[in-house]
């Protein structure tokens, strides 16, 4: 049996104790820093992977905040656009009511002019409304881009109102919506898309001819062509009235004429215009037609031009028959215009709903990213407090043991 003896020097014991004390103090300081900051990862060197995850989450949260600020600007612009369209609809409806009154058969010419002046005043207000801008000076109904005043006219050399810009609707994506709506689609009539036609009557002496509103079909075939109907004969027999008429299309005679149409005397006479064997336009002749009456059929380019025509027709009408013709056409056009405005207003409302959905999605993403960041760098406070208390107890034990080691010097016994 052998025994081995190892001598441990006092200096080595001191060094070991000091190292242990330093290590425990460093651990205690780190735990205290974690507790005061509330973070498990205070600096990237603590956990490089967790620090990278937390930084990535913070970057994405910052991007969401930026996108939300931009979305709020877009939401405010579309809110103003939706309000603008609502104001425009209200003005058009007021004008429509006045036009109904202007078509009354018992009115004098002066009364009709009074109605026309009121309608013109509302039209001037409508012109200001449709050119309204947002807080940044951008037209709310500017479509894909327009002049600062998108709706102008009638211009010199141009008989109608124009949209000075690029028609169309800007697209939205998963984090943003458009900042303007398509004013061209709201206020301008397209011959193929809308097919809004007006009928103007040139009465021959002794005539009381008026027409109904014009309806169109197969608009791609019609393609915005202008027609003129001229009555060449009217016969009444057996309780029926028959009219004979010729047609021109864009100034060129339509082959196959003259054409005929008939109805029970006193009833509207239906007229159907065909092109290439398909029906493109329908309306009816009302009142008492005579030879020489002419009916012009032209597409209406815009709501504003239809209002202009109505104002001129009501002002210049010399009889209730002429006023009734003007009013009947204007009412049909204004109904179509209100429908266009309502459609675009509904689209603006959907954009606002989309903005709400985007905001909800972004909030969900922010919550998820904040949870990812918290898992990566935040401290579990209960565990942190427990670790701090354990480290504190360990440091106290190390200090006591160090104090005992300090007394283990041989000189203490020799001197003692």
UniProtKB/TrEMBL annotation:
Q: What is its main location?
A: other
Domain of life, per UniProt, equals Bacteria
Enumerate the spans annotated as Flagellin N-terminal domain: 8-141
Where, subcellularly, is it found? Bacterial flagellum; Secreted
Indicate the secretion signal residues: none
Q: Which UniProt keywords apply?
A: Bacterial flagellum, Cell projection, Cilium, Flagellum
Magnesium found in the keyword field: no
For this protein, the record's Pfam families field holds: Flagellin_N
* UniProt keyword Transcription present: no
Gene3D superfamilies per the UniProt record, alphabetical:
f41 fragment of flagellin, N-terminal domain (1.20.1330.10)
In which family does this protein belong, per the annotation?
A: Belongs to the bacterial flagellin family.
Report the NCBIfam families cross-referenced here. Answer: flagell_flgL (TIGR02550)
Name the record gives this protein: Flagellar hook-associated protein FlgL
Organism whose genome encodes this protein: Diaphorobacter limosus
Gene designation per UniProt: flgL
